[in-house]
Amino acid sequence: MSVETDSHGRLYLSSKLRRKYGEKFHVVEYEDRIELIPIDEDPLRAVRDEIGDALEGTSREELREEALRRAKQEVEDDIERAKREAEDTAE
């Protein structure tokens, strides 16, 4: 399926697609394309449906701390990987 934007840059989706995926989308931009990711009308319900009771008994503060810890670890891993790649290309 292909669609075109109008003179104002608006993109129109068929009613069939809107019924299937909803009316709200997150636009993800890549180097060579964009993707429309449907946003659930009740995002919290969607998360609960997806993860079930996996976070039962975990406070928001604990979740924040864990997310921050993981984000820091990812950054550190990325820095180490970049250093290794730079060393490999320098050789």
SSE blueprint:
Layout: H1 15-21, E1 25-29, E2 34-38, H2 43-51, H3 60-90
Antiparallel strand pairs: 1-2
What does this 3D model show about the protein?
The relative contact order is 0.06. With 91 residues, the chain is mainly alpha-helical. A hairpin with a 4-residue loop joins strand 1 and strand 2. It is built from three helices and two strands; from the N terminus they run αββαα.
Silhouette: flat
Total DSSP E strands: 2
Q: Taking strands numbered 1, 2, ... along the chain, how are they ordered across the largest sheet? A: 1-2
Number of domains: 2
Helical content (DSSP H or I, runs of 4+): 40-55%
How far is the N terminus from the C terminus? 48 Å
Largest sheet: 2 strands, antiparallel
Output the structural class. mainly alpha
Oligomer status:
single chain
Mean pLDDT: 88
Helices, by number, come to: 3
- Rg of Cα set: 20 Å
Regions with little confidence, pLDDT below 50 for 5+ residues: none
Order of helices and strands: HEEHH
Percent of residues in beta strands: 5-15%
Summarize the structure.
The chain is mainly α and 91 residues long. The protein is 52% helix and 11% strand. The chain folds into two domains: 14-56, no CATH class; 60-91.
